[in-house]
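Researcher: Before we compare anything, I want clean individual predictions. No alignment, no superposition, just each chain on its own. First chain goes here; please echo the sequence and then give the structure tokens.
Model: Echoing the first chain and its structure:
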Amino acid sequence: MIDERELAIHPIVQESVQHNHQVISNIRNLTASLFGVASGILGLESYAGFVFYLLGTVVVSALIYVLRAHRDQRRYFQSPFADLWASEVLSGLSSFVLTWTLLYGLVRA
């Protein structure tokens, strides 16, 4: 955890924390829908579709880590694992399933 000295040197600005969380949320929701479209077009069923989604979210998290956070998680997030790697995974799941089933039904009909 961050101690008082570190907070005095590098204070946490709540607006920046909210902005970073909003950017991560937008990226996750958009990519969840795109993964659903890809799963539906590929015709993935059952566990294969969910594994595709989980692997996709890991890849997106790694890309955010490299491209947006510049490999310095502590600088942009208070709790890097929760904010960068685990947040919004379940909320994006509903968008994924919705677009997955829609495109699967359209392609296979």
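Researcher: Okay. Second chain, same rules.
Model: Second chain and its structure:
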Amino acid sequence: MNSSSFDNSAASAKSNRQNLIKGYTFIKSGHVVFSEGRLRVENHSVISNAIINFREWRENFESIRTDIHPSDIPKEFTDLIAMLAHESDESLDDLAHRLNDLLSPFERNEEASYPFYNAIKQVIKVTAHQERYGLADVVLLLSGTPSSVPKVMHFGL
């Protein structure tokens, strides 16, 4: 075996190891590169079943009343909302809209949709705290910086 065929087979083996998944490079510039899509909690079977139960409860509730307060939502479902909101990087309004859509029955009462949105938003405020990490928080730790985050850099709820 000559050295060029050895080099070619070594390069081929290295290429095969790097491309275990066709079209994906695991080693780039000598560093391991691995990224994985975010796993959404709502795709877990236990949570999916809880979402179905919430939709059934909501459909029954909407058939009786269209006004809802956060206290009307049973504890098991406020826990569900907290789990669905966990680690979200969405704004409060966007998260509440997404969860309202996710937790709506297929034939939802549009008159009850906005009150449910508000109730879900209130449950999120009570059960979840969004921690933002990044430049705005670090800047406050430096000496000689403003005592508060400038409005341009603030993404608070």
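Researcher: What stands out in the second chain?
Model: Strands lie at 27-28, 31-32. Additionally, The helical segments are 3-18, 45-64, 75-85, 92-102, 110-127, 135-139.
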